[in-house]
Amino acid sequence: xxxxxxxxxxxxxxxxxxxxxxxxxxxxxxxxxxxxxxxxxxxxxxxxxxxxxxxxxxxxxxxxxxxxxxxxxxxxxxxxxxxxxxxxxxxxxxxxxxxxxxxxxxxxxxxxxxxxxxxxxxxxxxxxxxxxxxxxxxxxxxxxxxxxxxxxxxxxxxxxxxxxxxxxxxxxxxxxxxxxxxxxxxxxxxxxxxxxxxxxxxxxxxxxxxxxxxxxxxxxxxxxxxxxxxxxxxxxxxxxxxxxxxxxxxxxxxxxxxxxxxxxxxxxxxxxxxxxxxxxxxxxxxxxxxxxxxxxxxxxxxxxxxxxxxxxxxxxxxxxxxxxxxxxxxxxxxxxxxxxxxxxxxxxxxxxxxxxxxxxxxxxxxxxxxxxxxxxxxxxxxxxxxxxxxxxxxxxxxxxxxxxxxxxxxxxxxxxxxxxxxxxxxxxxxx
Amino acid sequence: xxxxxxxxxxxxxxxxxxxxxxxxxxxxxxxxxxxxxxxxxxxxxxxxxxxxxxxxxxxxxxxxxxxxxxxxxxxxxxxxxxxxxxxxxxxxxxxxxxxxxxxxxxxxxxxxxxxxxxxxxxxxxxxxxxxx
Lengths: 431, 132
Fold this sequence. Notes:
The complex is a heterodimer of chains A (about 425) and B (about 130). By secondary structure, chain A is of the alpha/beta class. Chain A has two domains: about 50-115 and about 290-430, Rossmann fold (3-Layer(aba) Sandwich), CATH 3.40.50.740; about 120-285, Dimethylsulfoxide Reductase, domain 2, CATH 3.40.228. Helix content of chain A is about 35%, strand content about 20%. Chain A contains 18 helices and 21 strands. Chain A has helices at about 35-45, 65-80, 90-105, 120-125, 135-140, 150-155, 160, 175, 190, 205-215, 230-245, 255, 265-275, 295-305, 325-330, 345-350, 350-360, 415-430, and strands at about 1-5, 20-25, 25-30, 55, 60, 80-85, 110, 145, 180-185, 195-200, 225, 230, 245-250, 280-285, 310, 320, 335-340, 360-365, 380, 390-395, 400-405. A nine-stranded mixed sheet of chain A has the order 5-4-19-18-17-6-7-15-16, covered by helices on one side. In chain A, strands 10-9-8-13-14 form a five-stranded parallel sheet. A three-stranded antiparallel sheet of chain A has the order 1-2-3. The radius of gyration of chain A is 23 Å and the shape is globular. The mean pLDDT of chain A is about 95. With about 130 residues, chain B is α/β, with parallel strands linked by helices. Helices cover about 20% and strands about 30% of the residues of chain B. Chain B is built from five helices and six strands, in the order E-H-H-E-H-E-E-E-H-E-H. A six-stranded mixed barrel of chain B has the order 1-5-2-4-3-6. Chain A: GO terms for molecular function: formylmethanofuran dehydrogenase activity; NADH dehydrogenase activity. Chain A: InterPro entries: Formylmethanofuran_DH_bsu (IPR016457), Mopterin_OxRdtase (IPR006656), Prok_molybdopt-oxidoreductase (IPR050123).
């Protein structure tokens, strides 16, 4: 059976033009997706856990959904400071149920944002977000900047759908009319196709952004001959290109958010865009990783006022990244139970956090056997949103997209499982 | 040799995300991409192993030559291997130093551990399902 116009549930591009062919309950062909999306869709059906599993002494055993959900509610109710972490590869509906549960438990809810674009949000909260939709970029932008990111490997269709290789309504010959600037600490494949590749010494992004801002504001006299490995000549060239553009779009990745300076790097990038907006039109968009990590920020904000790292232990929503973020809470050995949903801290958190996670009662809700599986006491397999579950997901530019189901493999959705656990918690806390 | 430790996505790492117990994921995340000059300084050939010692611990990786990586820096795909050496401090931002810690590199003959062994080393219990 052929399924057309399907949505890819891999990265924040949420490509919506996939053609997927299924035979029975197997995906046999995926057209239009990038290598990452194809691998997910071709493999996600094959590597599922078949049923919930629980630790039994020094071994794993199968369990029923009822037993696993009962156990989950039990450890969350027994905890003084439960951590509910993840939420980025699941539906908005499940994220909403998670926030309600965190509030009732007086726990902390955090999404993978805290280890990807959390610092971008901190910067946006300081100086705002001059953003736009990807459609605007595709149809109007004649200068694209990718700073501290590598779309060729991490968002492989971004350039062909929205920037360099995409046809634009207001560009006569989009490929020739668009210029591309890449800023990175290493020369990647993306760098090799750029009109300007600006190689920054590691940790030098803030200084280079400041130098560009000085030039844009007419103070090139204060810029030294080289800034973090970039020559003044190149900085002048890049600043001139930026000012000459009719519509510039700056995309940035975790190269800015994870490097020294963290959210201050992003703040400086936003302020560079502000400076450029005195001359011409400029916008800025973070390249988001998980397909619905943006959704977690939206849902958390509607419900609590804060985009991630929300702590309900004071009976009101409290937000203080660095204190209420998952890595910090685990590293301080502060939480005494954890519910991990749709993410893999086992693969992506520093070792010290994993040592604490492995020492407390914890449950993983995820379709696959992941690096977090060995660290938890119980795992509940669920449907993959965008494959055997429908739901809402937010693209990296904040556009909500209905992610469609095209298979039925008999698994419950994240929303169903979390809602049932929430009901069990409610029975005890608010009988 | 000291080097700056950088982590991030690669397409092979991204392709392995749905099957992390498979050897492909291990192969994709247990590499240390280095400038050819740094490889030469360490007297290493591509494919040989390198011990990376960071603020939180050490890990054995397979050395891979990459001319795009500047001298004095190494690039390790994000995953359990990179995280074995990264400190959990976040400077009050929530974000660890995934791209800026300093590591020591030296050649080694030790084997690269399997991901399940890494998880057992931090107190986990490997799940030997139908994957392995």
